[in-house]
Amino acid sequence: MVLAAKIQRDIDYGEFDTSLSKYKPAIPLNHIPAVSSPSTKLDLLALWEQYVEFKKPQVSQSTYAIDYRKYHNHIASLPSKNLKDAVAIRNYLVANLSPNSAKRTLTNINACCNWALKSNLIESNPFSGMAKDVQIPKSSRYENDINPFTREERDAIIQAFEESKLYGYYAPLVKFLFFTGCRPSEAIALQWKHIGDKFITIEQAVTVSSTGVILKKGLKTQSQRRFPINNQLREMLESIKPIHYKLDEFIFKSKKGGIIDFGDFLHHAWRGYKIATVPTSMGL
User: Fold this and answer.
1) Does residue 61 sit in the same domain as residue 96?
2) Residue 42 CB-density burial (10 A; 0-12 exposed, 13-18 middle, 19+ buried)
3) Under a CB-based contact definition with an 8 Å cutoff, are residues 238 and 265 in contact?
4) What is the mean pLDDT of residues 187-205?
5) Is there a single domain that holds both residue 249 and residue 162?
6) Which of 6-15, 206-215, 262-271 has the lowest mean pLDDT?
7) Residue 272: inside a domain, yes or no?
8) For the chain, how many structural domains are there in total?
9) Residue 144 domain flag
């Protein structure tokens, strides 16, 4: 009745609201939806998967397919993925991974949670500063230092590949890597069109994506570079050059004639996989 009287009064005074919004009842305070706040239900693995999708367009395909998958596996194997158990997660990683791996995993988890915090998915980052707590032994700090082989060691390695019944087809690649010092990913991507009279043009590399090994134009730090061909290198390339070849044909091939999978080379041939089944006189 009060509302009807109000409407009649507005009609009489020419103040009637044709939209009727003026006459709608006010919403009680206890029915007003609360302002959205960061969710605390997302666990670390769920956050990591969202973070990786966000980063996917910004990182290389190999980083996405290899590095991020590796950290995903570390997170997936955690006894607890609850952010409230951050300290226990740190302790588990330190106890079950090498110091380097634990530190890198925590660094990436921290980056993930910083992103989640800025994205209003969590209220705080419990992993902030944790990576700094992981101390790397002095001997491990230099494990990635370059330690060149002596000439005798180089020749012994090349000979072992040449004489290997399992991995002899890798010998030309091993020679090229020793002779030039270029990155394996660049050597594997070389095609005969890149070989000139005096120089090798290095302008592409192989990389690993979620769909497998692919070619990527350009190099890690520059678009291309040229490497001079000396007599030793020329003789090696001429010795493996087919009589009939195509310019787009790869110089170094896998056993089946395709692109070499450097991961297979590294983990099987270089590190001596199946070496126990091969007579010691054969080397690799």
Assistant:
1) yes
2) middle
3) no
4) 89
5) yes
6) 6-15
7) yes
8) 2
9) no
Residue identified by tokens 């009287």 is 5
pLDDT at 26 over 50: yes
Is the residue at 206 inside a domain? Answer: yes
Residue 52 CA to residue 38 CA, distance in Å, equals 19
Would you say the C-alpha torsion 22, 27, 29, 33 has a positive or negative sign?
negative
Q: Cα separation of 183 and 178, whole Å?
A: 10
Hunting for tokens 């290095």 — which residue is that?
202
Give me the amino acid identity at 52: V
- Residues 99-110, mean pLDDT to the nearest whole number: 92
Same domain, 203 and 276: yes
- The answer, yes or no, to whether residue 156 has pLDDT greater than 80, is yes
Containing 138, the helix (H) or strand (E) segment is helix 138-141
Lowest mean pLDDT among 8-17, 61-70, 80-89, 132-141: 8-17
> What local confidence, expressed as pLDDT, does residue 211 receive?
63
The SS3 of residue 29 is helix
Does 122 share its domain with 186? no
Q: What local confidence, expressed as pLDDT, does residue 17 receive?
A: 61
Residue 147 gets which letter from DSSP?
A: -
CA 172 to chain centre: 28
In a domain? residue 37: no
- Could you tell me what percent of the chain has a pLDDT over 70? 72
Question: What CA–CA distance (Å, rounded) separates 187 from 172?
Answer: 11
67: exposed, middle or buried (C-beta count within 10 Å: 0-12, 13-18, 19+)? middle
Residues 111 and 166 occupy one common structural domain: no
Residue 142 reports pLDDT greater than 70: no
| Cα–Cα nearest to 51, from 133, 132, 125, 111 | 111
pLDDT at 278 over 60: no
Tell me the residue range of the domain where 227 lies.
151-282
